[in-house]
Amino acid sequence: MYTIKELELKDKRILMRLDFNVPMDGHQAITDDTRIRLALPTIKYAMQHSECIVMMSHLGRPQKKRLADGSIDIKKFSLAPVASYLSELLGKQVALLQHDEEIPDIGLFLLENTRFDAGESKGDEKFAQRLAGFGEVYINDAFGTAHRRHASTATIAEYFAADQRAIGLLMESELAFAKKLLDSKESPITAIIGGAKVTDKIGIIETLMDRCDHLLIGGAMAYTFIKARGGKVANSLVEDDKLDLALDILAKAERKSTKIHLPVDSVTANAFANEADTLIVNSDMIPDGYMGLDIGPQASAAYGDIIKASKTVFWNGPMGVFEMPSFAKGSFAVAQAIAEVDRNGGFSLVGGGDSVAAINASGLADQVSFISSGGGAMLEFLEGKELPGLTALTT
Ligand code: AMP
């Protein structure tokens, strides 16, 4: 597999798949530009070598969220705001291009949302071929969608010879840091896994169990483990059909050298609301009518100590409902401890949309070794699963 720096780009029309799937408010103003900024080095590199660059990306799920008359909600899902914003950042006009427009000779272009065509998510050959016509070389720098076998991320690669397709600079660093994490022998190695559902994290928990010394569990998924062990979790979010699985994982960890930690205490509330009445209690003795919404102060301190003593750290998933200030302390404590790992010369990787949002909210984002732009893609890569966006460039 080639990287962009290994391709002959001079005067070639460069087609790039980037991840511009950014959040927008009700007036189509971009509310978080992280993904656009992460794409800039590859775009600027391409601009040094060619005068015709066609960028493409998806935005949201326009096929699933159609208007009442069945048509696509073009206003809501158009990439026009991204084209304007890119023009500002690059100091050069980026023109929005429709899928059926003429292929241009010169200039900076952003193709309209690839998901406006139903063929995109199906990996459709015809649509991929149409897209491929926009470039003489193809660069995939959309790590966040590398785990999807879509027309613009995977199928399209077959229309380019092996030396006319490559990964971009962001994809290159994502892969390098993920490999660094997997290859790390610098122990203690600690993984912090949180978030809403055990189901989503089973794969990564099982993979990590072979590799790390400590597995710290937080978020709603902790209560499935605590209930499985016989604890009283009252109204906490629990996956009752995963109790056996949770016990299985705990038993497996006993046989391995990984120690699984559950939060000893929790911040509980009598409603899922920032202003609800809260109580700090042992996580296995939550009173009736209350639910665990964050790890408690004792758990935060214990997790913090383990993290700070670690040499290699991976974090995916918040420790609580960090979107509400009353339940953000646990996630912020983890972010702070991770920043210290880096100060002590260790290595830390934060991956997954919500833990990235949590570390951004904590103001410590610039103090961790690497923040991944791809939640699902990073988890699947670490689990050893094939990423179709990458395989397409190698086969
Ligand atoms: P995930 O996408 O699986 O990483 O889950 C992230 C979501 O889990 C965030 O929106 C959190 O607000 C939510 N979450 C974390 N802890 C809890 C909890 N104890 N109860 C309910 N939701 C939670």
Verbal overview:
The chain is an alpha/beta fold. The chain folds into two domains: 4-173, Phosphoglycerate kinase, N-terminal domain (Rossmann fold, 3-Layer(aba) Sandwich); 184-380, Phosphoglycerate kinase, N-terminal domain (Rossmann fold, 3-Layer(aba) Sandwich), CATH 3.40.50.1260. The chain is built from 14 helices and 15 strands. The strands form three sheets. Strands 3-4-2-1-5-6 form a six-stranded parallel β-sheet. Helix 12 (353-362) links the parallel strand 14 and strand 15. Bound molecules: adenosine monophosphate (AMP). Adenosine monophosphate binds at residues 195-197, 200, 219-220, 237, 292-293, 317-318, 320-321, 323, 352, 354. Adenosine monophosphate (AMP) is lined by residues 195-197, 200, 219-220, 237, 292-293, 317-318, 320-321, 323, 352, 354.
Cα separation of the termini: 9 Å
SSE succession: EHEHHEEHHEEHEHEHHEEEEHEHEHEHH
Total of helices: 14
Rough outline: globular
Bound molecules: adenosine monophosphate
The CATH topology of the largest domain? Rossmann fold
CATH architecture of the largest domain: 3-Layer(aba) Sandwich
Question: Which features would summarize this protein structure in a list?
Answer:
Rossmann fold; 16% strand; 14 helices; single chain; 6-stranded parallel beta sheet; 2 domains; 15 strands; 395 residues; alpha/beta
Task: Map the helices and strands.
Elements: E1 14-17, H1 34-49, E2 52-56, H2 74-77, H3 80-90, E3 94-97, E4 107-111, H4 119-122, H5 125-132, E5 137-140, E6 165-167, H6 169-183, E7 189-193, H7 198-209, E8 214-217, H8 221-228, H9 243-255, E9 259-261, E10 265-269, E11 278-282, E12 291-295, H10 297-308, E13 312-316, H11 329-343, E14 347-350, H12 353-362, E15 370-371, H13 375-382, H14 388-394
Parallel strand pairs: 1-2, 1-5, 2-4, 3-4, 5-6, 7-8, 7-13, 8-9, 13-14, 14-15
Antiparallel strand pairs: 10-11, 10-12
